[in-house]
Amino acid sequence: MTFEIFISQFFGGLSVAMLLFLVASGLTLIFGVAKVFNFAHGSFYMLGAYFSYQAISMFENFWIGAVAAALGAGLVGMLLEICFIRRIAGREEEGAFQILLTYAFILILDDAVKYIWGPAYKTISKPDSLAGSLDFGQVTIPTFNLFIIVLGLVIVVAAWYVLSRTKTGKIIQAASTDTQMVGMLGVNVSLVMSLVFGVATAMGGLAGAMAAPLRTVAPGSGVEVIIDSLIVVVIGGLGNFWGALFAALLIGEVNAFGILWMPQWASLLSFAVMIVVLIFKPKGLFSREKGRKKI
Amino acid sequence: MHETLLVQNIHSYYGKSHILFDVNFSVKKGETFCLMGRNGAGKTTTFKSIVMLVPPKEGKVIFNGKEINGLKPYHAARLGIGLVPEDRRIFGDLTVKDNLLLGTSSGRHGYWNLEQIYEYFPILLDYQDKPAGTMSGGEQQMLTIARTLMGNPEILLLDEPTEGLSPVMVKVLKDLVLKIKELGTTILLSEQNIKFCMAVADRVVIIDKGHIVYQADVASFRQDDDVKKKYLAV
Ligand SMILES: Nc1ncnc2c1ncn2[C@@H]1O[C@H](COP(=O)(O)OP(=O)(O)OP(=O)(O)O)[C@@H](O)[C@H]1O
Ligand SMILES: [Mg+2]
Q: Which end of chain B has the smaller Cβ count within 10 Å, N or C?
């Protein structure tokens, strides 16, 4: 492998990783704070792609499409949390209900998309300003991919800031260990949950809009994404935000290089990585099981 | 005297099991009121019912003349009911300071702020940037109380605060409770430690198997050895 190919695969992997992180971080955030395993999280990625398609066909502007994707997916996410997911919280059968409910969301959202936009694939083109590529000596990297990497980094920094430097972030961290206690201190926890759902699904929707020019806009695309995101979340440790970032980078790069080394087996590589991680760290790479309490 | 908290004939359940039966008492403004009872008598359930964590199926909870049944626990906190739970429930991964700041979520202002807390609990200042989970049990107990005080509650509900504390810490806690009392905060305390209760309380009720079985001021409770033997001896 030449150095040029290495660099170009590396950047390709990085942009895939960032898209994956946008979806997986939301999934892990929802799990960490609300203890809900949102199987339908990939469907918000799909919704984002369609909202973006719709807005672009109306306004002919990629960026309006991206905003519409994030806002639209976030609103639908909040609505589903308020109308359905909240109702099953705290029930004895909650775990089973969550699986049934979020699985039903996948089917309903898939069919809703087919009903509204039809079963045929849609395409979105890159915005003109980012359609070209940048040359670094021998290496050529598509500008759009670089943009996705930068956007991902901006979101990582913003998330770090909100989670570790603001009161809202502290509330989210506290709620992920003891929701009830946070409520007893005077925090409207239901509102926090809805916001977390809204932000997490908005990030999924944004990922869908950003991925659309690279992939296709199609019903069922949410399911492919949820499987990759699941792998990422499991590797990083359920509910662990930084674990999701690390695992997304790992899976993105493993895929990018795997496809060069063993093209026919590339799609199995992510699973292989997950299995190896689980053998050594059954709760994920970033799980914390230190006995920190001294009484 | 004005009644801060009225618990009127409440019945509370966990699922189908009936735990509190017609529990009835009132706490006057500024007093320290002690709820005593053996393990499993229903002290914690009474507290959870007051803050609507386990909303009573029957009966009323009236705070400052306003019925609070049907409200959420966070409303109770904002109205001025501060519960310090028996199992401490500090946020172990967050720093001590962040734990304290979360206490301000009630949105209430008054005597207690970070400065006052650090002045009164110097140990919390020493630990302010360390994860709360690294403190000892007794220090964590101080932190839970301090965290609730940060919300400047009008009534402080302390659920078995002496449980598991060393005699030295119990003494520290006694001084703290007396100080809070002196500041005019109404206190509802649950205890099994008779000595501690007699040292701080003005009035005492005893709960047994979910029923209130005794009520007196602390002077008569002091004399009532039969009652102590009957309901509190282990
Ligand atoms: N979550 C729960 N579900 C079902 N039953 C419960 C639950 N919590 C407590 N109980 C039962 O309710 C009764 C009263 O319990 P509660 O915790 O109020 O007692 P307590 O007086 O606080 O006891 P302790 O001194 O041990 O803290 C007990 O019989 C207990 O077994
Ligand atoms: Mg108890």
A: C
What separation, in Å, do the N-terminal and C-terminal C-alpha atoms of chain B show? 35
Q: Is A213 helix (H, G, I), strand (E, B) or coil?
A: coil
A110 vs B66: CA distance, rounded Å = 49
We report the CATH number of the domain holding residue A7 as 1.10.3470
Domain range for A29: 3-280
Q: Which of A174, A181, A292 sits opposite B85 (nearest CB)?
A: A181
Kindly state whether residue A181 falls inside one of the protein's structural domains: yes
Specify whether the CB–CB gap between A155 and A22 falls below 8 A: yes
Q: Measured from the CB, is residue B86 less than 6 Å from ligand 1? A: yes
In a domain, A293, yes or no: no
Give dist(CA B144, CA B157) in Å, integer.
12
- Complex-level ipTM: 0.92
Q: In chain A, whose CA is at the least distance from the CA of B151?
A: A185
Q: Which residues of A touch B164 (CB under 8 A)?
A: 295
pLDDT in tens, chain B (234 residues): 578 999 999 999 999 999 999 999 999 999 999 999 999 999 999 999 999 999 999 999 999 999 999 999 999 999 999 999 998 899 999 999 999 999 999 999 999 999 999 999 999 999 999 999 999 988 999 999 999 999 999 999 999 999 989 999 999 999 999 999 999 999 999 999 999 999 999 999 999 999 999 999 999 898 888 888 888 875
Closest residue by CA, ligand 1 atom 7 = B14
Judge whether A289 lies within some domain: no
> B132 CB less than 6 Å from ligand 1?
no
Rounded CA separation B207/A132 (Å): 77
| In-domain check, residue A20 | yes
Chain A residues in contact with B72 by the CB 8 A cut-off are 183, 188, 190
Instruction: Count the domains in chain A.
Output: 1
